[in-house]
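Protocol step 4 of 5: obtain the predicted structure for the target chain.
Materials: sequence only (see below). No template structures provided, no constraints applied. The aim of this step is simply to have a reference model before the mutagenesis design in step 5. Sequence pasted as it appears in the construct record:
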Amino acid sequence: MGIFVNDRAWNLKQAKDRKEHGDWHVRKANEALRRGDTSAYNDHMYRSKIYYNEADAYMASARKSTK
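Step 4 output (structure tokens):
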């Protein structure tokens, strides 16, 4: 991310969006696994972790926000 935005509502919205993207990738990973496509499964799981890490970072920023 890099730049801290001192706006709690904005950070919470970003965290929610990132979590939703992560959840989507987990659903797609599970679908791929049911199809036996382990390559797609691994790709979706990798991407979901990135989105969940970003969501955690935005939540931390929201906790630090004063506005």
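Step 4 remarks: Residues 8-35 form the longest helix (28 residues). DSSP finds two helices and no strands in the chain.
Proceed to step 5.
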